Amino acid sequence: MLPAIGGSRNGRLVSIASRDPAKAQQMASQHSIARVAATYEALLEDREVDAVYIPLVNSLHKEWTLRALAAGKHVLCEKPLAMNAFEAEEMAAAAARSGQCLMEAFMYRFHPRTRQFVEGLRGDPSPTHVQASFGFPLTDSSNFRLVKDLGGGALMDVGCYTASATRWILGEPDTVLAQGRVGDTGVDLTVSALLHFERGSDASLWCSFESAEEQGLTAVTSKGTFTLTTPFTAWRDPDDPYQLMVESFADSVIRGEPVAIPLEESIANMRLIDRIRDAARI
Q1: Of 90, 131, 259, 268, which alpha carbon lies 20 to 30 A from 222's?
Q2: Residue 259: CB partners within 8 Å, gap ≥ 6?
Q3: 192-212, pLDDT tens digit by residue?
Q4: Which pLDDT tens digit goes with each residue over 144-189?
């Protein structure tokens, strides 16, 4: 994200804050960031900062988004936007009251190849089945992704991509079935879900911390099967979806226009994640 902001046509890196000032200073030096704020609060008090990017653990997204909005800052918040749909609705309401832009940082949705793939599935015939998968191996028990209180778990970390992509193509499901496996740290390590949609289409979602590196997006139609490889992490091939996302967000801020990923979309994605979590009893 730092190279994306620094290389963007309409943004610049002004300040950075971290729990570890030494690490913040190191990153500031590497990315030509003007200054290091002593605390998160100090960064929000900086009058030269118009917008903040929040890459914190999932459990802190709501708190610092609300504080940033209250400080008059626009917010680009890392995915998933919140811990659940209720939090996402609260954050959206705060953004509306403040008049500031708030957008979930789902960078994959800005990749031209991904957008072309999804647009190519519009119209007739629409997909009858979508399969979305994203997994990678994670064994370090100290990793925040394996800590329940921090909002860890495969569904929140990589499953949110599969939910987003499926909804992007098919809309909102009317039925959700799911199963999950919970590990020793109390978070879900693997989750599988089956979705059914009102028009008769269905989808299968799979996410995991127990697999080899795996990701894919496949749509089956009456005219053929279409697959997009590496749909969620493609980067500088030659397109940089991070920079495209940053520039889109900055354009919205500068022009006073709606953000490219509406908060209604982010809330709906959290609702599906909640439904999968409930169905899997995780």
Answers
A1: 268
A2: 101, 102, 103, 248, 249, 252
A3: 999 999 999 999 999 999 999
A4: 999 999 999 999 999 999 999 999 999 999 999 999 999 999 999 9
Q: Pairing state of beta strands 35-36 and 15-16? A: parallel
Q: Three-state DSSP class for 126? A: coil
Paired with 55 in beta bridges are: none
List 23, 62, 73, 79, catalytic entry: 79
Residue type at 169 in one-letter notation: I
| DSSP secondary structure letter of residue 188 | E
pTM: 0.97
Query: 132 forms bridges with which residues in the sheet?
Result: 205, 217
Residue 148 annotated as catalytic: no
C-alpha dist (Å) from residue 164 to 37, 168, 272: 34, 6, 9
Triad 31, 36, 37: Cα angle to 5°? 145
Q: Could you give the CA distance from residue 243 to residue 221 in angstroms, rounded to a whole number?
A: 32
Alpha-carbon distance of 211 to 194, in angstroms, equals 19
CA–centroid distance for 9 within its chain: 23
Q: Which long-range contacts (CB under 8 A, 24 or more apart) does 4-7 make?
A: 4/240, 4/242, 4/243, 4/245, 4/246, 5/53, 5/246, 6/31, 6/32, 7/240, 7/243
CA distance 202 to 132: 12
